[in-house]
Design a protein that fits this description.
alpha/beta; FAD/NAD(P)-binding domain; Cholesterol Oxidase, domain 2; seven-stranded mixed β-sheet; 17 helices; FAD; flavoprotein; GMC_OxRdtase; GMC_OxRdtase_N; GMC_Oxidoreductase-Related
């Protein structure tokens, strides 16, 4: 078995394994399919106004929303990052972890650490989270669709629109087959085969990676838009929303954004009463932008000298992240790299998934690993006072000398569905490019902790199953030994306890990580209404996962992409009636 030191590195990279040229976002060579994508600096005074819709954020929801609205209306999309096209670290599965480990200002991934001590990431690239995640595609639990009050017929029209363009059937590796059989032996039945639907039991879901390992992001959905009515500006970071406050209610009239050269621009809506600014910046970016624009708790805004446009105490509240814990599964047999393909949807309130293998190119092993590096002081294996030049150099050398055995094997993942524990998002400063302070309060509610324990017990059963041990060619290990191997790894900044392998509750608390399914901050009924219009403000809407009170199903990206299409269709039909059909 690989050394614990090597294993620590491997496990620390697990968030990278799950879900994009280091320090760059690729060349700006546009395919003929995307003539409407330009740099932020290209917006001149003659074309800065008269938009029917300004969409802030070209992410998982923003891209399908823009493509749909542009069929009938003039649309401007402002995306703070670059493009995913021609960037091999975004595009290819074998390179996916490099961008997640890149902390440079031009990285397609912006890392942040919650106040809980868990390392996390958010998309900073056209396509948003769909450009940096593990690619798993599965529809929402039908209960979620009913809960949010969506039109089922329109939902069932919107999912296939996404699926026909960017979703594929996974290769389904031998590792995934072994875990599938282990799940069935552990009682997670029946086997539902390959399906996009959310069904209790074990299933194989879709993926946005094709059979060549190439990623297809939400950005590709823009090709379905009307190029004559659609403008997408990249490297265009919106600083704040502009309001007209002379009437009875504040009214959004445009935005101020900064281009790639640091120059500020303004973009304005047309005079139409139904024209809107739509914020689709994600569960971190959307509440942050509302706060910076003057919508939020009065005391917090005044603390940063932000003029109050509208007092709303709920902006940034109710943030939640599905806690995940993992069990490392060593293997004497080399495994083919695979991300999430198999999932066990249990009646315990947990999801069991798996990933295996690791990219073994010289770049993936020897590159500068960003947030994993002692150079920036985030590696808790080297105490801050001991981070001498010699210690840093020794750590860097150890990364380059990692034995190949460390890249064999995989993980069984246990994720708590619909966590009851919630936290909040608060501003640290008024710089939109910096992360706000985010707290998720993992396991603060005992119900979440109870479900985590049940999930770990189930994951251990899967690892100990004959199907998995036969495939890995490893002897059946005790639960304590498995937990000991996993907990010694440096996977977060939470202090470890000596009873981690004796108490499953303590193991859950100390080894919690994220699978990037955080949501909330702009809940329906508190910040937006049922049509996602911001309460108390005209011509401003939110369309993204910040409105969710729970993550939809095992992975949210399918539903967030569908939501963009769904809301685009709904807005068109509400505004144009039968003329809105496309």
């Amino acid at each position: 078995m690989a050394s614990i030191g090597a294993l620590k590195f491997f496990l620390y990279l697990l968030p990278c394994l799950l879900n994009y040229l280091p320090h760059s976002q690729g060349k700006q060579n546009w395919n003929g399919e995307y003539p409407f994508i330009r740099r932020g600096s290209s917006l001149g005074r003659s074309d800065n106004g008269g938009y029917d819709y300004i969409i802030v954020g070209g992410g998982t929801a923003g891209c399908p929303l823009a493509a749909t609205l542009s069929k009938k209306f003039k649309v401007l999309v402002l995306e703070r990052g670059g493009v995913p096209f021609n960037n091999p670290n975004v595009t290819f599965l074998r390179n996916f972890h490099i961008t997640l480990a890149d902390t440079s200002p031009t990285s397609a991934s912006q890392y942040f650490i919650s106040t809980d001590g868990v390392l996390n990431a958010r998309g900073r690239v056209l396509g948003g989270g769909s450009s940096i995640n593990a690619g798993f595609y599965t529809r929402a639990n039908p209960r979620f669709i009913r809960k949010v009050g969506w039109d089922t017929k329109l939902v069932n029209e919107s999912y296939p629109w996404v699926e026909k363009q960017v979703v594929h059937r996974p290769k389904f590796s031998h590792w995934q087959r072994a875990v599938r059989d282990g799940l069935l032996d552990a009682g997670v039945s029946p086997f539902n085969g390959f399906t996009y639907d959310h069904k209790y039991g074990t299933k194989v879901g879709g993926t946005i990676f094709d059979r060549f390992g190439r990623r297809h992001t939400a950005a590709e959905l823009l090709a379905s838009g009307n190029p004559k009515k659609l403008t997408v500006l990249v490297h265009a970071t919106v600083q704040k929303i502009v309001f007209d406050t002379t009437g009875k209610k504040p009214k959004a009239i445009g935005v101020i954004f900064k281009d790639e050269n640091g120059k500020q621009h303004q973009a304005f809506l047309g005079p139409g009463r139904k024209s809107e600014v739509i914020v689709s910046s994600g569960a971190i970016g959307t509440p942050q932008l509302l706060l910076l624009s003057g919508i939020g708790p009065r005391e917090e805004l005044q603390k940063f000298n932000i003029p109050v446009v509208l007092h709303n105490e709920f902006v940034g509240k109710g943030m939640a992240d599905n806690p995940m814990n993992t069990i490392f599964v060593p293997s004497k047999r080399p495994v083919q790299q695979s991300l999430i393909e198999t999932v066990g949807i249990t009646n315990l309130g947990v999801y069991i998934e798996t990933s295996c293998g690791f990219g073994q190119s010289k770049d993936s092993i020897h590159c500068h690993h960003g947030i994993l590096s002692a150079e920036i002081g985030q590696l808790s294996t080297i105490p801050p006072k001991q981070r001498s030049r010699e210690a840093v150099e020794a750590f860097v050398k150890s990364k380059k000398d990692i034995p190949i055995e460390a890249f064999r094997g995989g993980f069984i993942l246990s994720k708590v569905a619909s966590p009851w524990s919630t936290g909040e998002l608060r501003l640290i400063d008024t710089n939109v490019e910096e992360n706000p302070a985010v707290t998720f309060n993992y396991f603060s509610h005992p119900h979440d902790l109870k479900r985590c324990v049940e999930g770990i017990r189930l994951a251990i059963k899967v690892v100990q199953s004959q199907h998995v041990t036969n495939y890995t060619m490893c002897d059946r290990q005790s639960a304590e030994k498995m937990l000991n191997i996993s907990v010694q790894a440096n996977i977060n900044l939470i202090p470890k306890h000596p009873n981690d392998t004796k108490s499953l509750e303590q193991f859950c608390r100390d080894s919690v990580i994220t699978i990037w399914h955080y949501h909330g901050g702009c809940h329906v009924g508190k910040v937006v209404n049922s049509e996602y219009k911001v309460l108390g403000v005209d011509r401003l809407r939110v369309v993204d996962g910040s409105t969710f009170s729970e993550s939809p199903g095992t992975n949210p990206q399918a539903t967030v992409m569908m939501m963009g299409r769904y809301m685009g269709l709904k807005i068109l039909r509400d505004r144009l009636g039968k003329l809105g059909d496309i």
